[in-house]
Please model this.
Amino acid sequence: MITSQKIALKFQFGKPRFVSSLIHLKFNTNQRMDLHMFAQIPVIHSYTRILIWTIAFAIGLLSPLPRQTETLGDNECYGLGNGQLQSCQGLNPNSEKCDGITYGNYFSNGGARLYRRYSTECNSKWTKIVNMSGQTRYTAGCTRYGGSHYDSAQCVESGGWPPNSQPIASGLYVYTPMVGLSGTPAISCGYTSTNSIPLPITASPPNYYGCSGSW
Model:
């Protein structure tokens, strides 16, 4: 039985100036292989060093680069449209992911509390109407804008436009659709009722009773 065996492997690197490496493979009776490295690390020729660095550089060039993505806001509309995002006009601020800021103080009328809301991110504005009557009531409101007397309106009633409207509990609220430019002068109108509320809510100059001041 062969109890041990030595195999000498000699690695020669190019020209005689390189120091050789000698590897001994020793097999014992348990069929384990012991690897012994003798003689030292070869001195690599400058040409060989250049070749190794060239190969490494080429591999680096061929490796795929991390994909870079553009970071965008969450909003899905902007003003009256900007070529990339659709117009916010007449759309729901929640579904379009427009973060709102309250302008000034709230305005109270007919059991409703009206908040004038705007978004610089979406360049739009709307009205939040909260039922504060203490009862379950129909709750409606409009953001009026445009013309010499706020002749246009974006309106909403709880549950939808009549005849689909439904009353909501006290403390709940609805939003008007958005006006697509936050700089557009507007007034907010709204109230609650035990009956369905006709839309749009009218506002007569010069005082526009039942509506907030211009904003």
Residues 149 and 158 are 26 Å apart (CA to CA). Residues 6-51 form one domain. The radius of gyration is 39 Å. The longest strand covers residues 112-119.
